[in-house]
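Researcher: Structure prediction, please.
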Amino acid sequence: MNPQKSPKKKDPLKNALALTGIAFEMGVIIYLAVKGGNWLDAHYETEKKYFTVIATLLGVAISIWLVLQQLKRLNN
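Model: Predicted structure follows.
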């Protein structure tokens, strides 16, 4: 006979803490991207905030990708 594994019970507190960590991580990544873009704009003395816009969009894209990866891991 092949014993069947019982389904894993998901701990709601553990999931809530993981989601809180994900939100904090996302905020830090976007904040650092904005600060880096501002620094590049100041360093190269650009008239418009091109580096800030590019770095912010890149930070948002990276953070969304990381969130999706972590949510896949939570669902397994």
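Model: Residues 33 and 58 are 8 Å apart (CA to CA).
Researcher: Thanks, that helps.
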